[in-house]
Amino acid sequence: MTKIGYLGQPGSYSHQAASRLRPEAEHVPYPSFEDLVAAAESGEVTEAVLPLENSESGRIPDVHRLVVGMELFITGELLLDVSHCLVTCGPTVEAEIHSIFSHPQGFLQSSHFLKDRFPETTHKTRSDTATAVREVVESGDRHLAAIGSEFAAQHYGGTVLHKGISNRDDNITRFVIVSREAQTDPSHDMSSLIIQVGHEPGSLVKALAVFGSHDVNITKLETYMISERTELPTFYLDIGCGSEAENLIAAMREIEQHISYSKFLGSYRSDPARSGRNGFLKP
């Protein structure tokens, strides 16, 4: 059976993404992004799921740093709705709940609901929302609740007391699936890459102009902080066409004279859920 790795505990949002992307695979948890990427690079798992960015908080820094050096290719993406729920171990009287467990982001992203419905409860921080849900369900204590996903509640057998308690209803995390082999297909409508340009005036403008001259649309452009691995100005790009597109091939051939380094991260089919309204532009 195909193995796909993900970060965190079973029931996490990464586990949910892995289940959506590869429902028939064996899903294997890893404690850190470094361990997860290493497992995919070594072949311990066939693929890995990585959270790349969030519509509310932006890019995931730990993953963003790993992308520069990883020997893996992006082969797909998923825009996952991060919708928090209030979970208990069973049917519960709301007024009797005295403690709520979650990750700090879970509390922050559900602060309006908590202020309105549970202003006096104690907040107990856990390493992730899945761990919070598991502890509450396994405790059997109906005076406790957790903020987490409906997926986690189903995984651990909890009861969803309230759905959709997030402050925003458009909190979306973009996950990508990576593997050791790049994929090519005429249906691909997105590619991702990294480029480095010289540290001279106009270097980036000249490089980006090449894409425009070949009618290649850039849907995302982000800069890296200077480091040992990125000593020159370094940029991550999402491009609205697959690697087999003739205009992208021509652009990459011409751009070589304007950049010092490039790394192709993969070609894949974009998630149909992309929309300007959720912060993820269509190709």
TrEMBL record:
Site positions (Essential for prephenate dehydratase activity): 173
Keyword Transport tagged: no
Prephenate dehydratase domain ranges (all copies): 3-180
Domain (ACT): residue spans on this chain: 192-269
Pathway it works in: Amino-acid biosynthesis; L-phenylalanine biosynthesis; phenylpyruvate from prephenate: step 1/1
GO biological process terms held by the UniProt record: L-phenylalanine biosynthetic process
Entry keyword set: Amino-acid biosynthesis, Aromatic amino acid biosynthesis, Lyase, Phenylalanine biosynthesis
Reaction equation(s) it catalyzes: prephenate + H(+) = 3-phenylpyruvate + CO2 + H2O
Entry-linked PROSITE patterns: ACT (PS51671), PREPHENATE_DEHYDR_3 (PS51171)
Enzyme Commission code(s) on record: 4.2.1.51
GO MF entry, a single one: prephenate dehydratase activity
Name this protein carries in UniProt: prephenate dehydratase
GO CC annotation terms, alphabetical: cytoplasm
Superkingdom of origin: Bacteria
Organism: Palleronia caenipelagi
InterPro entries linked: ACT-like_dom_sf, ACT_dom, Chor_mutase/pphenate_deHydtase, Preph_deHydtase
Top EC class, one word: lyase
Lineage, opening ranks: Bacteria, Pseudomonadati, Pseudomonadota, Alphaproteobacteria, Rhodobacterales
